[in-house]
Write a structure and sequence with these properties.
alpha+beta, two-stranded antiparallel sheet, about 15% strand
């Protein structure tokens, strides 16, 4: 059994083997200290594949369209970052490109690799590293911050131009929902169990 400390009351306790779909609660404060989803691999894989498709749509379609004084213009996420770079804001351009492009793409790619690699145990040793990198990329995937910034900008320029939300803006909103759903349905303990099997001597 695994020994853990409750994140709420710091009580040290042994975490029993949790059945699929079950939860373990702290005996002192009743806080949930462990869960095991009923579908630890197929559901997060389906969500991750959906996120990959939505991410491609978000990156390849128009984010916003502007119409003012008879002129129209539209841009994508990559186009917006490129415009910032050309206008002398390289730091802002790199932050936008990383947080809205590279980090979400890395998170999706790492999670897809992990979920596909562990479907047939024993899982390769590099799965643990990929899982850590996926978690790191998730932290930097700030689609919700980007949407908030866009909404603030829309309020400011609404009186000066006609703004038409693009498909990419709605796709970003879907990603904001999909990423937490991926994290909630994924059971890291199940992944680590399958990685550990790679070190287990084969039975004869």
């Amino acid at each position: 059994m695994e020994t853990i400390a409750c994140p709420e009351c710091d009580l040290l306790q042994h975490l029993p083997e949790i059945p699929q779909g079950g939860k373990a609660r702290c005996p002192r404060c009743r806080n949930t200290v462990g869960t095991r989803p009923s579908d630890p691999l197929d559901r997060p894989l389906a969500l991750t594949l959906t996120a990959a498709i939505v991410f491609i749509v978000a990156q390849t379609t128009d984010l916003l369209g502007l119409s003012a004084v008879g002129r129209q213009a539209s841009t994508t996420i990559a186009g917006g970052a490129l415009t910032m770079w050309q206008e002398g804001e390289p730091l802002t351009a790199m932050v936008v490109a990383f947080c809205a492009g590279f980090a979400p793409a890395g998170y999706i790619l790492f999670m897809l690799t992990v979920l596909l690699a562990v479907r047939r145990p024993p899982a390769p040793h590099w799965v643990g590293g990929m899982l850590r990198w996926g978690h790191a990329m998730q932290i930097w995937s700030m689609n919700e911050v980007m949407i908030l910034g866009i909404l603030v900008a829309l309020i400011k320029i609404a009186e000066l131009a006609t703004v038409e939300p693009g498909i990419a803006l709605f796709a970003l909103g879907v990603l904001v929902v999909l990423f937490p759903a991926m994290a909630v349905t994924l059971d890291p303990r199940e992944i680590w169990r399958r990685v550990e099997w790679a070190d287990t001597p084969a039975r004869r």
